[in-house]
Write a structure and sequence with these properties.
It contains two helices and eight strands, in the order E-H-E-E-E-E-H-E-E-E. By secondary structure, it is α/β, with parallel strands linked by helices. The chain has a four-stranded mixed beta sheet with strand order 1-4-3-2, with helices on one face. It has a four-stranded mixed beta sheet with strand order 5-8-7-6, covered by helices on one side. Strand 3 and strand 4 form a beta hairpin. Helix 1 runs antiparallel to helix 2. The longest helix is centred in the N-terminal third of the chain and has 14 residues.
Length: 126
């Protein structure tokens, strides 16, 4: 559905450390183009982190959340822990978040700039 998502940063090094760690927990390696970081592939789509092109300070989206797919509950847990250890802040600890018949397990973080992210899996252990 998406080719790419871009989030802004005012501190490329801090953002790269956060995203390298959290994406590694999901089995996704990071790449660089100048001071921009990017993650993903043409098949899955990319998430890119870089300074705003207009030269203005980066700000986060009020009400926006970027949801990432995890293969298992342990990947969600590892993703959340990696984010906290690399400059992120907790927006919702790992746990069950069922929606009707859908069994879900997920967690929420804010990156060092304030962008809100979530990782969820449908591979839920009862």
């Amino acid at each position: 559905m998406f080719t790419h998502i871009v989030v802004g940063t005012n501190d490329p090094a801090a953002s790269a450390a956060f995203y390298d760690a959290t994406f590694a927990a999901l089995g996704i390696a990071g790449n660089r183009a100048g001071d921009a970081s990017y993650y993903g592939s043409y098949e899955t789509g990319f998430l890119s982190v870089n300074r705003p092109r207009d030269g203005q300070p980066a700000t986060f989206a009020n009400g926006g959340t970027i949801g990432l797919a995890a293969a298992s509950q342990s990947e969600v847990d590892a993703w959340h822990a990696a984010g906290l250890a690399n400059g992120g802040s907790d927006e919702g600890a790992p746990g069950r978040r069922d929606m009707g018949e859908n069994k879900l397990y997920g967690a929420y973080l804010r990156d060092p700039v304030g962008n809100k992210l979530a990782a969820f899996t449908t591979n839920v252990e009862d």
